[in-house]
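hey can u run this one w/ calcium ion bound, need the structure tokens asap thx
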Amino acid sequence: MSRPVAIDCDPGLDDAVAMLLACGALDVKAVTTVAGNAPLEQTTPNAARLLSCCNRDVPLAAGMAAPLVRDLTTAEDVHGEDGLGAVELPDASVEPIDRHATELLADVARTTDDLVILSVGPQTNVAAAIRRDPELIDDIDRIVVMAGSTQGGNVTPVAEFNAYVDPEALSIVLNADVPVTMVGLNVTWTARVGEETAAELERANDSVGQYAAAFIRALSPFHSARDGWDAVPLHDALAAAAIVDPNILTTRSMRVDVETRGEYTTGATVCHPDADDPNVDVAIDVDVDHFRSVLVDAIGSGR
Ligand code: BDR
Ligand code: CA
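ok here u go:
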């Protein structure tokens, strides 16, 4: 039986691969969108078109258009003006429902046993949902966030994008009384995927696989120019894969605090491995081959 999951995302090229992976290997109950890589007016239609790529008709709801207390920072430099690297996609066959993402998350949590929330954009919607209805956490099995890092950042030297965009929201989520797994840059930077895997995905599925390969290729110029890498990190897809098979990651229970008042360090996730009040299962290692094979299998079984 595949795990039931609600995906909160800001597509985003790696969000896109995460959605395709999840649609192939998890029981996707709902998709909610948040502002992040692109404004909400872009991430919501992007999510709708991605569901069409997977032939999925699951409830989709738009959420927060801005972080809890800050102005929005976007990432068009990585994901392109449209958030999806100008990859050609089918028209959306799914319309967002007339409810807020926080309401949809609450409804799905109430009606689904063992729900995992996969939060791969700024954590604004999930934090807002918990604030709106603190008992919600009793209905969630686990929250898996792609956010933060045990060290290093991709927006500033110390802050990862999702944590940087809405550090207050991430702090609320990490400190909620619910199991949380943090999949950060320290592992996603290691689990890179290149042309060989893109070609394998195309062979595995001549519909969804073509899209997945196109998203990987669209990320490539940015990472090749900035990092000199010939393979790209699929941050959000790694977080999704870790729900399919948690053995992909090695985690360690740690105290994680998010810097919300820093002059130079906003969004840094300060991880204390030896604290006696741990709040997060932090990914500290990744089996890269295992990740790639879960990705290929999931895309291969997608519709
Ligand atoms: C995270 O930031 C976004 O740009 C990606 O989609 C991912 O969720 C990586 O730092
Ligand atoms: Ca994302």
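Residues 9-10, 12, 15, 36-37, 120-121, 236 surround calcium ion (ligand 2) (CB under 6 Å). anyway lmk if its weird
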